[in-house]
Amino acid sequence: MKAIIYTQTGAPDVLQPTERPVPEPAAGEVRVQVKVSGVNPTDWKARAGGPGRPLAYPEIVPNQDGAGIVDAVGEGVSPDRVGERVWLWEAAWQRADGTAQEYVTLPARQAVALPDDASFDLGASLGIPALTAHRCLTVGDNGPQRLAPGTLAGRVVLVAGGAGAVGNAAIQLARWAGARVVTTVSGPEKAKLAQAAGADLVVNYRTGDPAAEIHEFAPAGVDIVVEVAPNANAALNHDVTAPAATIAVYATDEPADVSLPAFRLMYKNIGYRFVLVYTVPEAAKRDAVEDVAAAVAAGALQAGEAAGLPLHRFPLDRTADAHAAVESGAVGKVLIDVA
Length: 339
What we know:
Helix content is 28%, strand content 25%. By secondary structure, the protein is α/β, with parallel strands linked by helices. The protein is globular, with a radius of gyration of 20 Å. It has helices spanning 41-48, 120-125, 127-138, 165-176, 188-197, 210-217, 234-240, 262-268, 282-297, 319-327; strands spanning 2-5, 16-19, 29-39, 65-73, 85-88, 103-107, 111-113, 156-160, 180-185, 201-204, 222-227, 241-249, 271-274, 311-315, 333-337. It has ten helices and 15 strands. The relative contact order is 0.16. The chain has two domains: 2-126 and 301-337, Alpha-Beta Complex (Quinone Oxidoreductase, Chain A, domain 1), CATH 3.90.180.10; 129-278, Alpha-Beta Complex (Quinone Oxidoreductase, Chain A, domain 1). Strands 3, 4, 5, 6, 7, 14 and 15 form a seven-stranded mixed beta sheet that branches. The chain has a six-stranded parallel beta sheet with strand order 10-9-8-11-12-13, with helices on both faces. A two-stranded antiparallel ribbon has the order 1-2.
């Protein structure tokens, strides 16, 4: 089978095509014929590596997310799953085998049923972005712990960077759960994408008075912030949050450390929570997978430009270019056509 591997960290050109044997699923695993592989920022960062970070395995296939069809099962897995359309999550987390290959084996629970009316493109766009968004929306002390229609009714959610993959998923999930959603973007083109995703209010943070616009939209304040740039957005967040709000941070900007006005946050009982989807507690991860699957089944999660998430496609042999596109900040979702 065709696969993309890297045997050393570095620039995208360390990604090389190769031929590998088709793997056999072990007990508790399924084998999936991968149709589409999705690329996330953590995929290129893992490939790029860093000082003192040797490869965990001699040979690694990149990419956490994907979608395809179960074509074989291991011992203990129902044979009824053969032929099932699925979306995949965390295929390469603490494993050597991601989704940039024609077949991948992985634990059965990491291959989630994908409805017939949901495209493989959507399936490959879920995984890391949607699970991260779910955790950000449910990590606060005031809940909810699960997402479903009505669980965020009466809440106001602020999504920083609503044109990004996590931002897009957060907008769609929050709206599905009944929240009113405001998002910040850097320009008119990204504003169109955030509006397509379903945001009630889109604020260009480079023009006008973002805090005033948000206060007018939510006079009592924002209840949940889904945050991608905690330093750049700190002043705005501290101004517009309601008492006992949660600021859920899932990425970092410069500087990497965050300095907080302790007394101001204490006075409002604001909670900062930091989210890395890979190390989310097991029960919360299971809840997130189930809720995201329910949102997909309900048609509440979509991909493509009409849903505010433009798709950028590459063939398998151009996986290096796909990684470079994500690394350079491509707006939308970068996908690799595997099959």
